[in-house]
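for the writeup, i need someone to sanity check this before i put it in the appendix. the sequnce is what the collaborator sent (i think, or maybe the updated version? ugh). structure was predicted straight from it, no edits. if anything looks off just tell me and ill rerun, i have time this weekend
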Amino acid sequence: MFSRYLYMTFILLFVCCATAYAELQYQVIAIDEAIQAFDINNAGQVVGFGQYSRGFVWQDGIINHLEPVDGSHYSSAYNINEYGQIVGRLDGHATLWSGDTITDIGVLPGYSYSQALDINDNGQVIGHSTYGDYPYSTDRAFFWENGVMQEIGTFGGAHSQALAINNKGQVVGWADLQDQLRAHAFIWENGVMTEIGLSPEYQSDPDPPGSRALDINDKGQVLVGNGGTWIWENGNWTKILAEYMPEASYIRSRAMNNVGDIIGLAIFEEDTPSRPFLWRDGTIYDLSTLIPADSNWRLREVYAINDYGWIVGTGSYKDDGDINWKGGAFLLTPVPEPSSVLALGLAVFGTGLGWVRRKKK
């Protein structure tokens, strides 16, 4: 009987360890020399836009600017896959950096510029080509693989953009309708473009807002913005952010990981700063309340989250003793780390099991 109670005690300790992780907190790590951080992979490699108008890759406090670095080229890195391949833009063209090799992805026929926004672990790249100059420019989504660029198309309008690709090769984004008044979200796979369309709330609305597919994970779940934040999966819609900070003017969701975590931004009226959020398992967290009060950081925007819950974004900070705030990029990492909690829980569980076995002898 005593052994049973002892074993249950260790189980409760394990639950307490897991509960400690549920009480989510983050530490803020400054990414030196970085202006904006756009993506992070599961190895903790961060890419973005840094000083001197150059893209960078950062890991464990060390920043490396993307080649070429002779000062005459302008670059930005938007995404990195699990093999460390980076895509972005170099001197107006979509570009792939893979080890020491730089590949100019090029542009669609008749277009002038391009940028690559995402790359999966198979080396497939998506982005868009641009013709003309803003505000009279035209964007057209593309899919690139092994040196071949393929146009994704539209729903009869002029513009489209591809925003994300998963490891199944499924691409999501938005495309103009023929009336040019609004865009609809799409999913594209193996050359077939499918209209995701409008969420159930707006399917019968005579004047609905447009929709955009913002991200897709390896489960095929699509993050859609359409008068709120939705998850679309095989034709089924689930509303995620029904209400968040009622005083907010609107919500701008950014990204989703393979676990289903969602990050984004709450936008407010007038002089109230925007506030980044994390949605996890039905609970919404104001990220600004999850960092140490003495961190000297103001979080402004978040762009990416990896499968361990590490988040990158931009904000403003000031060093101890300074009175002026400076802009910069940050990395948020959970405290404690999920792996640390798991290791502690397994250690507690194993110790309890050992006690019980010895007791039986």
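The chain has a mean pLDDT of 86. DSSP finds two helices and 28 strands in the chain.
thx in advance!!
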